Amino acid sequence: MFAGLSAEALEDVVASGSVRRLAAGTRIFAQGDPGVSGHSLLEGRIKIVQTRADGGQSVLRFIGPGEMYGTVAALMNQPFPADAVAVVDSVEIWWSLPVLRQLMRRHPEIGLRSTAAAGQRLMDLHGRIGELTGERVEQRIARALLRLMQKAGRKTEAGVEIDFPITRQDLAEMTGSTLHTVSRTLAALDQRGVTGSARRRIVVRDPRALEHLAEHGVG
């Protein structure tokens, strides 16, 4: 929302917000709470989790440094559609809804970018729905790992490590799968040398093989 602003405008944005540290496990806001604030992550990782009517949960996405969250609901005067939970110790800056609106009045380009961001989220959601309905579960798991690698990967001697802890249950909730299926799929990928995992960290050892599986659904 703030990309491309002048240095003076960015100073205004930062001065209008409040910075706070979030211990791992902190819930920043809860599904159903009034949307009264917008947030941007400075350090760490945030998980957005939605509870369905049947009591099950879906991991909608992971937020990385520089990304906004909760803002669309606030600007639409809607309740937060999901929980936001710190995966690791994190730092965020946040603004109350009245402050966000004041910033948009002073800097109209923020409003234009927020509209574009909302549209991109909608397109991403449509893509995810298409994957859930049209792809095999192994392909969905590979695609989820590929996204995480591209978004949060860091090169190591062993390969590209996803730089925050992610559980097999997280992957199951991201891909509309089950814990058993994710465990079986990861074990097969580990055995083939495509991935490796330890200490709740996943390493992509063969990115090309993972990309092929994500695109074509075959090894």
Strand order of the largest sheet: 1-8-3-6
User: SS-based structural class?
Assistant: alpha+beta
- Give the oligomeric state: single chain
Any low-confidence stretches, pLDDT <50, length ≥5?
A: none
Instruction: Give, in order, the helices and strands.
Output: HEEEEEEHEEHHHEEHHEEH
- The residue-averaged pLDDT reads 89
Q: Tell me the strand percentage band.
A: 25-35%
TL;DR?
This protein has 219 residues and is α+β, with helices and mostly antiparallel strands. Helices cover 46% and strands 26% of the residues.
Describe the overall structure.
By secondary structure, the chain is an alpha+beta fold. The chain is built from eight helices and twelve strands. The chain has a four-stranded antiparallel β-sheet. A four-stranded antiparallel β-sheet has the order 2-7-4-5. A four-stranded antiparallel β-sheet has the order 9-10-12-11. Strand 11 (195-198) and strand 12 form a beta hairpin. Helix 6 (168-175) crosses helix 7. The radius of gyration is 19 Å and the shape is elongated.
Topology:
Blueprint: H1 7-16, E1 18-22, E2 27-29, E3 37-43, E4 46-51, E5 57-63, E6 68-69, H2 71-75, E7 83-86, E8 90-96, H3 97-106, H4 108-134, H5 137-152, E9 153-156, E10 159-162, H6 168-175, H7 179-192, E11 195-198, E12 201-204, H8 207-216
Antiparallel strand pairs: 1-8, 2-7, 3-6, 3-8, 4-5, 4-7, 9-10, 10-12, 11-12
Helix pairs in contact: 3-4, 5-6, 5-8, 6-7
Describe the structure using short key phrases:
219 residues, alpha+beta, four-stranded antiparallel β-sheet, 26% strand
